[in-house]
Design a protein that fits this description.
2 copies of one chain form a homodimer. Chain A has 7 helices and 8 strands, in the order ααββββββββααααα. By secondary structure, chain A is of the alpha+beta class. In chain A, the strands form 2 sheets. In chain A, strands 1-8-3-6 form a 4-stranded antiparallel β-sheet, covered by helices on one side. In chain A, strands 2-7-4-5 form a 4-stranded antiparallel β-sheet. Chains A and B meet through helix 4 of A and helix 4 of B. Chain B binds a DNA duplex through helix 7.
Chain lengths: 195, 195
Amino acid sequence: MVEIFKQYLKEKIEITDEEFEQAFGNLVVKKIIKWQVLLRAGEHAQHGFFVCRGLLRAYSLDEKGKEHIVQFAPENWIVGDRNAMINQPSIFSIDAIEETELILLPNNFLEAAATQIPRLLTMNVTLLNNAIRFMQKRISMLLGATASERYLDFLKIYPNLTLRVPQWMIASYLGITPESLSRVRKELAKNHFRP
Amino acid sequence: MVEIFKQYLKEKIEITDEEFEQAFGNLVVKKIIKWQVLLRAGEHAQHGFFVCRGLLRAYSLDEKGKEHIVQFAPENWIVGDRNAMINQPSIFSIDAIEETELILLPNNFLEAAATQIPRLLTMNVTLLNNAIRFMQKRISMLLGATASERYLDFLKIYPNLTLRVPQWMIASYLGITPESLSRVRKELAKNHFRP
DNA sequence: CGAGCGCTTGATTGAGTTCAAAAATCGTGG
DNA sequence: CCACGATTTTTGAACTCAATCAAGCGCTCG
């Protein structure tokens, strides 16, 4: 499993096997079952998570008790709570949609590892920038797109998740009801759309 | 004007006047008039901007030609395009809602200055994390909140912008029509709400 | 095998949009 | 400083997309 993370890093930055060992020798791999909770809103996160196999989701509850899925994290995604960095409770929860194998990334693991491999800092900034651009796109979409546009956008971003995520969760990610999503899909099917 | 930026930095990190001079001696201050454009979507951004006085907005256009305001940047806010970091064209435009005095922050100015003051890197990461949390909150809101909830949220985030930003722009930020915002305000006023 | 969950479908409702036009505010030149 | 034209905001009426409520179907897993 750690191999997968090494591969991921190698795509982002040049890193030798020796360097990897040196900086990430003691990574902890964790295997969790479906629906297992990794982080509960209000708690202080101890780790971020790199997904080797499986599927996680990050979601928040609004005052009305409604779930809003902020992000899915399939293979090769990192998900975690940014508030941990400034010692604040998490605003969202994280749990597993499938049985998942993941690597625990302690809150400041990148900063720590960077004492050995300074260019990890650059990578960290790149990752953060990516996250920001991703969210800016999402905001633009939520501001303007109709239900079916949102669904098409979801398909683009997470091409192979359609069958792995239950529809009511996709609906929650899109900010529409499961009923609406069902109708959107029906409409698209009628117009010969192939997912 | 540079004084304001120095003050801003001092609140974020311990920095002496000497250090500031050393790292930021050659900052460029720019004064722009109302409606002047600083960055056009599709261009490659050269700078981010720190607002000393005035008010900027970042907005994108969707395929239907509709404007979506991603962010306002009043005094002491930094706004810029993250795509510049990875040499990609900007997805949004930035212009001035008021006559504005700002400081140009060249794309890698923080990394450059960090050669002199390493703890600037930490600050950079903190800023990025803040941006992410801000956007996560915004996404949660857009997924679930009604028009009037959105407006109340806007008032909380930008308390003193109500009179400085035309209503049609606030509406664009909230993802509703100006007409709807007008009705929301009417309704709130009826219920003795004081802005 | 049946209880429960997820998905679909239908009918109804409602929040917000659209279109139109009046009222208020702003800004600019005389 | 005022007046006029343009822009912004408000108001009204009709409409639309998606939400809600409700019921039925099909699957799975206990």
